[in-house]
Amino acid sequence: MRIEPPTNRKATMTARVVSCAAMLAAACALGLVFSGALATGQTVGNLVKGFKAPLEFFDPPHALQMRSYLEGSQSEMGPNGTVIIHNAKLQTFNVDGSIEMMVNAPQCVYDYGSHVVHSDGPLQLQMWDQNRAFQVQGSNGFYWQQTNSYLIVSNQQKTTISGSLTNTFTP
Question: What are the tens digits of pLDDT across the range 140-160?
C-alpha cells in the first residue's frame, strides 16, 4: 500500500474553476459575436445592412401567418430606442398570406416601445382588395400604428384608384 502526501484540494479545485470559467467566457463571447452577425447582418459603423423584422402575427388558428413585416436595406439605432430604417418597405398581409398593403419610404423610424412606424419624407403606398388597387404617392410621410393597423397618410399626396368603384364603372 502506497501512501501519498496530502494535496491541497482547494487550490486544485480553484484552478479547475478558473480554467472552466475562462473557456465558458470565451465560448459566450464567440456565441454573441456569431448570433449578433446572424441576427442583424453585417455592421458598418452604426449602420446594419439587411434589416428584416416580422412585426406581428395573426391570432390562432393562423398564428404562423405574419400580419405585418418591416424590412430595409440598412438600419441604424436612433434616439430613445428607435431604429432608423433606410429604403424601408412595410407590408401588411391578409390571413391567406396575400399582400394587403405595402408602404415604401426612403427612410422611416420604427419605435419598438410604442409599436409605431413613421416617416416625414416621401412615400409610396399601395393597397389591394379583390376588385381594385389604391395607390398614394407623396412627400409628407405617414404614421402607422402596429397594434391596430391604423395608418395616417399626411397631406399633399397624389392618390390613384383603379378597378371597379361601383357596379357600373369599368376603367
Answer: 889 999 888 888 888 777 777
